[in-house]
Specification:
Helix content: 55-70%
Mean pLDDT: 75
Number of strands: 0
Low-confidence stretches: 22-27, 192-208
Distance between the termini: 91 Å
Strand content: under 5%
Number of helices: 8
Radius of gyration: 29 Å
Order of helices and strands: HHHHHHHH
Largest sheet: none
Structural class: mainly alpha
Amino acid sequence: ISACGVRGSLENPPEARAERTATAESGQGKPEGAAIKPHKDFILDGLIRLTPTSVIMSAVTQFSIGYLWFLHRNARADRPETGVDNFVLWKMPFGFTPVLIAAILTRLWGGETLQLVADNAIIITAFFYCVSGLSVIEYYLRKFGVTRLFRIMFFLLLFFTQIVGLAVTVLLGFIDSFADWRKLNAAKLSDAEKSGHARLLLITLGEP
């Protein structure tokens, strides 16, 4: 600075400081005794609020893709017992319902931090309920004999409905978790009973 020939104080003169005095409304600073500037809504506020959800779902998606690919490779290698159930049989367990209800209640009556946690928990559970709802839709489309082309067109139309289609799909998955429209719980119970009867028969016959 000395080599550049600057002399005297480096502070602004008093008149310059007076001109740059900020007010609470100007957004340029906060003078002493001024009220805190209120936060203005921003288009990215929602995305910033749901950053934990995006991080978690990104990790879950990458793991799921790798896991499903691994099971698919095993199933092709003459090991079908390691395969994945048909998509039309996917279903959210009823045990997630208390989690969703607790998150909704926290969102309604919790503090700011708890509301932030509840928002992310609701979005994450809604994603899985959405997948379950799509499974229900695919099940009935196949049951009614709808061709693959029309099924693809239906899902495209469902995608273009945006929020409405998403809400309906999530609601279908949520209701199916306890209504069990496809009778999957009964089928699993029947398989378990058959397995139990077979095991009892082997024990009766003295076989391990």
